[in-house]
Design goal:
2 domains, four-stranded antiparallel β-sheet, 18% strand
Length: 550
């Protein structure tokens, strides 16, 4: 049999032929009529502020999000990581990104990292269950190898950008390299990026195979910087109030003070225009569902990938939550989130139980009745009984998040449950480290006004130990805050050509430098610094050696 070649036929680009083979290997009973299982649309905003939605009294017009809130359930305590790539990794895998090596920083254009190809992605489970799968928007989960590409991670159709910060108008470039493609093939586009994405979603829905349900992932770039919007929207918000209340965090408020001293114009008007356009795009998608007569058989989940970028150039507002993007106060990790499924989810309701981005995969699998085909342990859990039936699902484990963005060696950590929350800020210099602890009784002080760390040193000590143990799971070569490329690194002219094709790669992950049999010994020697052995945890009863958790 002749070898299949990757050529100009998009069917054979980006690992699509592998996905085709996988579909042929799916169980014979994996195809379902569209009325047996709901469609799923997951829409993700990029840096949307907690207070920047109409249903919370914000001064930006968001009628489409207000509609979702009125017709669905608000997930009032929905948590994500403080920055982009870790949230997307957790969403796709249902696993804690500390295991995946994507926590402290995002995947930059010059990084060759991505999510381990052995990790199972949510769309792979939906595709195996007979769903059509598509992604429209921003990936940000790896681009150096085809194994990291959306078409190799369960998406039959990919339209969008491998990177972030490609701008809202052509040429959609990152580091000067064009970044706009359809299934591995570079394309040209003209228009406003947010509307181009919603147009593609509408086209996909209208041209779908109506005999099968679809799983559609729509990660918008809006309202991420660098901000830009159509002139009429800029005009609409030119006089919006720019005197925002303090975020009550030095990282965010310090940038605002500096911008004022330097007499820089407020980012708020442009941010408002970009957010308005985002809402219009969401509205177009909802209108398409109505026009196709499938709104009642479609689960729509919307959330922001992290808290609003409330620093000076971001323009977002998270008040009364504290802080913003990149921080582990509530304003950085507690986000706007809405879920609608008419007739299945109560309209106008609010769920106050903790739900994290790691819970999305098991929750949607439970809601749709598909099998989650992950082999590694999920860190998320299904929250469907709480959403659909109002059942109380008490959280017995702890939730952890971290960030090292934007300053190398400047960390923000948190660990929390229903009652307690510790926020830890660590400034690491060459031979010293300064630790600042903020302890909150989060059940009584949800907006983090009262730091009671000095009153409960025993709780601070216990939760600090939990953070150290959690951090010890991180792969040594995981992401860090590298804001500039290695000296002399150059970007490609076109990012669609950048990923190394699968057929040019070796069949197995590289073993690294340690000789066979030595890796676990060296892993043990690293102690709390991190892991050499992937997806393993140190077991003290094994002398501190690593053992994979199944």
């Amino acid at each position: 049999m002749p070898l299949l070649r990757r050529d100009n036929d998009p069917t054979f680009r980006g690992g699509a032929f592998i996905a085709c083979i996988l579909s042929l290997l799916a169980p014979a009973g994996a195809s379902f009529a569209s009325d047996e299982r709901p469609n799923v649309i997951v829409m993700v905003a990029d840096d949307l502020g907690w207070a920047d939605v109409g249903f919370r009294g914000g001064d930006i017009d968001t009628p489409s999000l207000d509609r979702l809130a009125a017709e669905g359930t608000e997930l009032h305590r929905f948590y994500t990581t403080p920055i982009c790539s870790p949230t997307r990794a957790a969403l796709m895998t249902g696993r804690d990104p500390i295991r995946l090596g994507v926590v402290y920083g995002v995947i930059m254009a010059w990084d060759n990292t991505g999510i381990h190809p052995d990790e199972h992605f949510m769309p792979e489970s939906f595709r195996a269950a007979g769903y059509q799968t598509a992604m429209v928007g921003k990936w940000h989960l790896g681009h150096a190898q085809q194994t990291y590409h959306p078409n190799a991670r369960g998406f039959e159709h990919f339209y969008g950008h491998l990177h972030t910060e490609v701008g809202y108008y052509p040429p959609f470039a990152n580091q000067g390299g064009k970044d706009f493609q359809r299934n591995g093939v570079s394309i040209d586009g003209d228009g406003y990026e947010t509307f181009m994405l919603s147009n593609e979603v509408s086209r996909y829905i209208k041209e779908r195979d109506e005999s099968r349900p679809f799983f559609l992932y729509v990660p918008f770039i809006a309202p991420h910087t660098p901000l830009d919007a159509p002139k009429e929207l800029q005009e609409k918000y030119k006089d919006i109030d720019t005197d925002l209340e303090p975020a009550r965090s030095e990282g965010t408020d310090g940038t605002r003070r500096m911008a004022t001293l330097m007499m820089q114009p407020s980012a708020r008007p442009m941010y408002a225009a970009v957010t308005d356009a985002l809402d219009q795009a969401v509205g177009q998608i909802l209108d398409t569902l109505d026009a196709e007569g499938i709104a009642d058989e479609t689960i729509v989940l919307f959330f922001s990938d992290n808290g609003g970028a409330a620093y000076s150039v971001g323009g977002a507002d998270n008040v009364p939550l504290r802080g913003g993007k990149g921080e582990t106060f509530e304003g950085g990790i507690r986000v706007v989130s809405l879920l609608r499924w008419p007739g299945k989810v109560e309209a106008g309701a609010k769920m106050d139980q903790i739900m994290t981005v790691m819970d999305v995969f098991p929750t949607l699998a439970d809601a749709t009745g598909i099998e989650a085909r992950n082999e590694r342990k999920l860190d998320g859990r299904s929250m469907w009984p709480a959403i659909s039936e109002g059942k109380t699902q008490k959280r017995t484990d702890w939730v952890y998040f971290a960030s090292e963005t934007p300053i190398y060696g400047s960390y923000a950590f948190t660990v929390f449950n229903d009652d307690w929350k510790l926020v830890q800020e660590v400034e690491q210099d060459q031979i010293t480290a300064t630790v600042t602890n903020h302890l909150f009784k989060i059940s009584e002080d949800p907006n983090e006004y009262n730091n009671i760390a000095s009153d409960h040193p025993d709780v601070v000590e216990e939760l600090s130990r939990k953070i150290r143990d959690w951090r010890a799971r991180y792969p040594i070569n995981g992401t860090r805050s590298h804001l500039v490329p290695p000296p002399g690194w150059r970007a490609p002219l076109d990012w669609a050509t950048y990923p190394q094709p699968i057929e040019s790669l070796q069949p197995h992950p590289a073993p690294g430098m340690p000789p066979p049999g030595v890796e676990k010994v060296l892993d043990r020697m690293h102690g709390e610094r991190g892991r050499l052995v992937y997806d393993c945890e140190r077991k003290w009863w094994l002398g501190g050696f690593c053992l994979r958790e199944e």
